[in-house]
Amino acid sequence: MYRYLIIIEKGDQNYGAYSPDLPGCVAVGDTVEEVQKNMQEAIKMHLKGMIEDREPIPVPQTTAQYVDVPIPDSAA
Questions:
Q1: How many domains does the chain have?
Q2: Residue 32 belongs to what domain range?
Q3: What are phi and psi of 18, to 5 degrees?
Q4: Which of 26, 31, 54, 59 is the one with CA 20 to 30 A from 11?
Q5: Cα angle 24-39-31, degrees, rounded to a multiple of 5
């Protein structure tokens, strides 16, 4: 089992998601929970298509980290 990072972005009326390790694999949903579910299904379908096309399955390599950055006094 692989574990792929997904990036979720809020749009004007919904949420969108993509996986940096699976170019072209995207999903949308009305809520964060819905886009997560839709993205999981999109990844399954994407990988199934890659297997059918005899393409190599990409090993997840992307990671994410948060960094704390102080706001300069002049911007507050």
A1: 1
A2: 7-62
A3: -150, 165
A4: 59
A5: 125
pTM: 0.86
Q: Answer yes or no: is 45 within a domain.
A: yes
Q: How far apart are alpha carbons 7 and 2 in whole angstroms? A: 16
Q: Which residues contact 39 (CB under 8 A, 6 or more apart)?
A: 6, 8, 17, 18, 19, 25, 26, 27
The stretch 49-62 carries a mean pLDDT of 97
Asked if residue 17 is part of any domain, the answer here is yes
Q: In b/e form, how buried is each residue of 45-66, taking b as 16+ CB within 10 angstroms?
A: ebbeeeeeeeeeeeeeeeeeee
CATH number of the CATH domain containing 41: 3.30.160.250
